Amino acid sequence: MSELIEPFTLSVPEEQLTDLRERLSRTRWPDPETVLDTSQGPQLAKLRALHDYWLNTYDWRRCEKTLNGLGQSRTIIDGLGIHFLHVRSPEPDALPLVMTHGWPSSVLDFHKVIGPLTDPAAHGGDPRDAFHLVVPSLPGFGFSDRPTEPGWGFPRVADAWITLMDRLGYRRWGAQGGDLGCAVTDEIGRKAPDGCVGLHLNFAMFPPTPDEIQDATEHEQAMLDSAAYFWENLSGYAKEQATRPQTIGYSLAESPIGLAAWIYAMFQDTCGTPGDAEASFALDELLDDIMLYWLPNTGTSSARTYWEMARSARPSAPDAAEPIALPTGFSMFPKEHVRKSQRWVERRYNNVVHFNELDAGGHFAALEQPALFVDEVRTTFRSLR
């Protein structure tokens, strides 16, 4: 019974939505920023507009219907309930693929790519590129259980995903990830379980070495400068969540607009139109994601993932001394602040089957540039089927 996979239908009680509206109606606003840009964080006018749309126009039931239509399930792995989407392709020879989101993301990051990846023929593609998709919610995120003890670092999550793919009956499969999902996918690559044919990453977790920094080309120096700007100016959320997740957690659990601002800032700062989230994402897309933190009260539990990462017994990224041997494809989107060069990548992954630097898109690649993302995933796994 512990290995049972149960269908999961989402039906949020109306009283939770009423409570949310009441909280939004009582929002106490801060003074506006004293600058004309986003250097102090999300601008008051932008958050007020998001708030007004959330309170007066946004329809959670639309999002709920979308999730239920994709096919949701839950199963218990290593004592924790794991929520996941499972979308099978109509193509009998489709390759199973587990896709892992990051923070402040959710399984909805992938909703635009699910159709093209599972049914290429219906979206102008080659049916030989089809995938069966498994899209889990990380522990402490979405409708997966919230861990009640420390220890759910990325190696343990990777073990859970390996178990999940086996439990679903998949004997040959691939793994994909970005942001924190990259860390989970790296761990799968390190473990190299039987049946995992390869990886695709749209992020790279490793830091360049001092020698690589010293020897950087002009192109690589631009990457280093971009990463330095991110860590010096935009990474306050990561430092807080890695050191004091419980402190910020009280605000994330109590105030919907506080949670929204915490999440919105990341979309604003790392999208393909930096400083202007609304130019890259619809308000519904932003709020759907925020709701998957508000409704299950996972602002704090998701933040603790950074605390776990900071206390990991080993680095969350490969290094040249122990390169990942599984075939791996990389997609670097230009507005991703933390990018890596091909030669840096190839020192840590010794079977790079695809590397591409794209012309558009940022950190939330599947949500923002779904067509490019789909093509990158297809290209990576085409030779690995």
UniProtKB/TrEMBL annotation:
<comment type="similarity">
    <text>Belongs to the peptidase S33 family.</text>
</comment>
<dbReference type="GO" id="GO:0097176">
    <property type="term" value="P:epoxide metabolic process"/>
</dbReference>
<feature type="active site" description="Proton acceptor">
    <location>
        <position position="363"/>
    </location>
</feature>
<feature type="domain" description="Epoxide hydrolase N-terminal">
    <location>
        <begin position="5"/>
        <end position="110"/>
    </location>
</feature>
<dbReference type="InterPro" id="IPR010497">
    <property type="entry name" value="Epoxide_hydro_N"/>
</dbReference>
<feature type="active site" description="Nucleophile">
    <location>
        <position position="179"/>
    </location>
</feature>
<keyword id="KW-0058">Aromatic hydrocarbons catabolism</keyword>
<dbReference type="InterPro" id="IPR000639">
    <property type="entry name" value="Epox_hydrolase-like"/>
</dbReference>
<keyword id="KW-0378">Hydrolase</keyword>
<feature type="active site" description="Proton donor">
    <location>
        <position position="306"/>
    </location>
</feature>
<dbReference type="InterPro" id="IPR016292">
    <property type="entry name" value="Epoxide_hydrolase"/>
</dbReference>
<dbReference type="InterPro" id="IPR029058">
    <property type="entry name" value="AB_hydrolase_fold"/>
</dbReference>
<protein>
    <submittedName>
        <fullName>Multidrug MFS transporter</fullName>
    </submittedName>
</protein>
<dbReference type="GO" id="GO:0004301">
    <property type="term" value="F:epoxide hydrolase activity"/>
</dbReference>
<dbReference type="Pfam" id="PF06441">
    <property type="entry name" value="EHN"/>
</dbReference>
